[in-house]
Amino acid sequence: MRVFYLHGFASSPKSTKVAYFAERFREHDVELRVPDFNQPDFSTLTLTRMLQQLGAELAGGGPAALVGSSLGGTLAILAASAHARLVDRLVLLAPAVMFAKPGHHLLPPERIEEWRRRGALPFFHYADNAERELRFTFYEDSLQYDPFNAPFHQPTLVFQGLRDASVDPRTVEAFAKTRPNVTLALLDDDHQLIASLPRMWTDIRAFLGVDDE
User: Fold this and answer.
1) First-to-final CA distance of the chain
2) FRET pair for 179, CA 20 to 30 Å: which of 40, 44, 121, 191?
3) Mode of pairing for the β-strands spanning 130-135 and 156-161
4) What is the CATH number of the domain that holds 35?
5) Which pLDDT tens digit goes with each residue over 2-57?
6) How many structural domains does the chain have?
7) Rounded to the nearest 10 degrees, what angle do helices 16-26 and 197-208 cross at?
């Protein structure tokens, strides 16, 4: 079984969720592969680069399951659409399905205009615990992608916190509502979903068919 974890914006392979799920999968002799989308440099990050990086890793074997968190969930959706034969199923954790569209929490109009004018802006990078500059090309590139309407047909399990201040639960509900391949679990949790890790693992283990013995 190949399982990839796709970390979120300004996160890394060293996040709390990665550590938790990597240990759970290890207990069942499954390696959790975690590409580092900060490489080679956070300032030049784009969704296109992330897709190319993931596509290269997926090409090295059989169909894989993708576990994507926030922006990583956006990436998982886009990869399932672009690389349908290489993606078996999806697990989405608070997926940013409206990413880069008007009203997104990271991108108020005045901040976009400042970003455009200056060419780069600092964003807090949780993995580095410091601000890191990101070029405006990240935003420009993202506008060509529409995760909310992207066509994909793989079985998909979505976890969304009802107290999420970053991704609107109503948007995720609307995303799941018209897709018969998507099962949505609404949780009493925030964007990080840390309190729900054991609950999510129980569902993920069954969804992916991980042996319980």
Assistant:
1) 16
2) 191
3) unpaired
4) 3.40.50.1820
5) 999 999 999 999 999 999 999 999 999 999 999 999 999 999 999 999 999 999 99
6) 1
7) 50
